[in-house]
Amino acid sequence: SGVEEETFVNTKNPVMTSEGWMIDLGSDSEGMTMVAYDLTGRQLSSAIAANGGGQIFIENNQWPSVVLLRLVHEPTNTMRTWKMVR
């Protein structure tokens, strides 16, 4: 849909950090949350909102080596999902 395309048009892919992953949404972070899942669909984290700088940090804790990171725009309920390997 046009809403979905506009919502995620400037979204960059998550990057790996020493503690897990980070996505930088910048000024597009309002209404966005991210949740991590394993490949069976089991939720590994609660919804995490961006900090004041528009960044979302996800710590990997004791997760499997492959996870799905799902970014959701709450107002429109549109989403984008990445398969990430650590």
**Strand-residue proportion:** 35-45%
Order of helices and strands: HEEEEEEE
Largest sheet: 4 strands, antiparallel
The global form is globular
Q: What class would the helix/strand composition place it in? A: mainly beta
User: Helicity level, as a percent range?
Assistant: under 10%
Tally of helical segments: 1
Provide structural commentary.
The protein is mainly β. 8% of the residues lie in helices and 42% in strands. It contains one helix and seven strands; from the N terminus they run αβββββββ. The chain has one helix at residues 2-8, and strands spanning 15-16, 20-24, 32-37, 48-49, 55-59, 66-73, 78-85. A four-stranded antiparallel beta sheet has the order 4-3-6-7, with helices on one face. Strand 1 and strand 2 (20-24) form a beta hairpin. The longest helix is centred in the N-terminal third of the chain and has 7 residues, at 2-8. The model has no long low-confidence stretch (mean pLDDT 84).
Summarize the structure.
8% of the residues lie in helices and 42% in strands. The protein is mainly beta. The strands form 2 sheets. The protein has a 4-stranded antiparallel beta sheet, with helices on one face. The chain has a 3-stranded antiparallel beta sheet with strand order 1-2-5, with no helix packed on it.
How would the blueprint of this fold be written?
Layout: H1 2-8, E1 15-16, E2 20-24, E3 32-37, E4 48-49, E5 55-59, E6 66-73, E7 78-85
Antiparallel strand pairs: 1-2, 2-5, 3-4, 3-6, 6-7
Kindly list the characteristics that best describe this protein.
42% strand, mainly beta, 4-stranded antiparallel sheet
